[in-house]
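Structure first, sequence second, as always.
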């Protein structure tokens, strides 16, 4: 709850965790540049590296494999463009990328840009109607020119969990006979809070995350890059982050993100169970009380914090506004593209159905979501849907 609003848009952003806020307040006195050689600078560097070690432990990685960024969008760009630029520098001509049609735009747009610039080719694999991209279809798209596969861990709109681990296993078999291995990147932005175990278990070469999805400030994230993987930097102007990302590190936010991630990982098992129960009750009551509604996405292979619902004979935007006026905050898709007119590319890639895409809303939950919030949302939803269908003559 934020003020008098029931906040059900946790997939878009989350409030600061108490652990993160405490660090922001405690470390505010440290303002020196972590790259400075004097005592205050060394103190800042020590705190920065302690945060790096904490993030590494939470992901099952080594500190040397963690690079701090401004968020998952930057991390995805670093991974994708950096891998292609490195391949080109090594003499590869028009390296090939394999990704899915319902990735976040932080993946799709860098891939599109590389193609427009004539720097790479790409194969885009569509999901099935349950929102799953088959591992076999991803691997079948790999060619001798393929440099990178990028597949998200959890879809940000429908919450489905993708078979990233299986793709890693199949790529491992392919890579045994290749001189230059195909790299695997995953956008784990939505997967970190409730799905990710460790990067080793997942088997990826690179992983992107964003702090504000699990209680850290906005504007900070990280890229995990396995030791031995070579990518080119996007930003030049300094040797920060071991030469991969120029610019003075966002010290306070990085420290807060490390604490938020540690707390998230500690609470993950019980919070996952709690949200699964909360969402199951929400969906069961919604489907029973509101006619002509359906769940978008696989019923089981989903992160527990996302529920995407299709309301037949309704425009989702009208329902979103009605809910907002009544104090219920939800969204019709990715917050990063909500200002752009048009259908959800995620739902269109699944169903190829304009009406279904335009009639769906995403509800997402988090650690402050209670049964009372869900009950209030269901009550308002029922009234709003009935009223809007009556106005449209589609009762």
């Amino acid at each position: 709850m934020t003020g008098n609003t029931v906040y059900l848009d946790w997939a878009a952003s989350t409030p600061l965790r108490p652990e993160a806020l405490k660090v922001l307040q405690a470390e505010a006195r440290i303002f020196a540049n972590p790259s400075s050689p004097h005592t205050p600078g060394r103190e800042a560097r020590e705190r920065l590296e302690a945060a790096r070690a904490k993030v590494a432990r939470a992901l099952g990685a080594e500190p040397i494999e963690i690079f701090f960024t401004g968020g998952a969008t930057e991390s995805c760009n670093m991974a994708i463009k950096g891998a292609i630029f490195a391949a080109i520098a090594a003499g590869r001509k028009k390296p090939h990328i394999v990704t899915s049609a319902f990735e976040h735009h932080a993946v799709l747009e860098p891939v599109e840009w590389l193609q427009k610039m004539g720097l790479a080719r790409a194969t885009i694999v569509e999901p099935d109607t349950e929102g799953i991209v088959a591992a076999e279809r991803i691997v079948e798209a790999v060619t001798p020119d393929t440099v990178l596969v990028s597949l998200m861990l959890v879809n940000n709109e429908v919450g489905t969990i993708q078979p990233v681990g299986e793709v890693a296993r199949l790529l491992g078999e392919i890579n045994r006979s290749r001189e230059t291995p195909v790299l695997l990147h995953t956008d784990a932005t939505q997967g970190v809070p409730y799905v990710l175990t460790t990067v080793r278990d997942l088997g990826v070469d690179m992983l992107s995350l964003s702090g504000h999805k699990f209680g850290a400030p906005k504007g900070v994230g990280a890229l995990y890059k396995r030791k031995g993987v070579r990518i080119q930097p996007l930003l030049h102007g300094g040797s920060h982050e071991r030469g991969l990302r120029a610019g003075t590190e966002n010290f306070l936010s990085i420290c807060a993100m490390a604490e938020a991630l540690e707390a998230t990982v500690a609470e993950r098992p019980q919070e996952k169970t709690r949200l699964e129960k909360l969402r199951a009750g929400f969906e069961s009551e919604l489907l029973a009380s509101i006619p002509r509604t359906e769940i978008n996405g696989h019923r089981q292979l989903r992160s527990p914090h996302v529920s995407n619902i299709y309301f037949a004979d309704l425009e989702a935007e009208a329902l979103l506004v009605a809910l907002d006026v009544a104090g219920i905050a939800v969204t019709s898709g990715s917050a990063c593209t909500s200002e752009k007119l048009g259908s959800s590319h995620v739902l269109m890639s699944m169903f190829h159905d304009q009406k279904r895409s335009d009639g769906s809303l995403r509800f997402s939950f988090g650690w402050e979501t209670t049964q009372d919030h869900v009950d209030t949302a269901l009550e308002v939803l029922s009234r709003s849907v009935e009223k809007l269908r009556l106005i449209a003559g589609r009762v």
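Margin note: The radius of gyration is 22 Å.
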